[in-house]
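Quarterly update, task 2.4: iron/sulfur cluster-bound model.
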Amino acid sequence: MSTIMENTESRTCGTCTLCCRLPDIDHFDKPANAWCSHCVEGQGCSIYAERPSLCRDFLCLWRTDDSLPPEWDPKISKMMIYEQGPQITVLADPDHPELWRSEPYRSQLESWATKAESSGGYVIVFCGEEVFKI
Ligand code: SF4
Ligand code: SF4
């Protein structure tokens, strides 16, 4: 959850700040889809050196899976994606509510859902107040 994470992976967060806005973060009493009070939009975390471990440790799927093609860059897809066991969770930016339903995203989400189903998983999309299970 930062725009300036260590470059131990080949991909970096760059100017993305989606995970400082889309998820709810109990540690900061932050609701979903609201900016963390420590985030400076387009710049990053103002408490970077002291950010909590939950921010230090989090990497979205874009950061951990080099096989994801360029359109899955959260800055382009407007989606923050992470795996929880067999479940794939998608937090879609409510400012772009139709993007996750469009191609190539929809087909890929359905493909992931089909694959996850074999191990009891699924894809779940949160977009604003709406939740969709694929
Ligand atoms: S959503 Fe991914 S790319 Fe964007 S800031 Fe979070 S970890 Fe980095
Ligand atoms: S503390 Fe920093 S890295 Fe963590 S959510 Fe807030 S702005 Fe993002």
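Highlight for this quarter: Helices lie at 53-57, 61-64, 74-77, 105-117.
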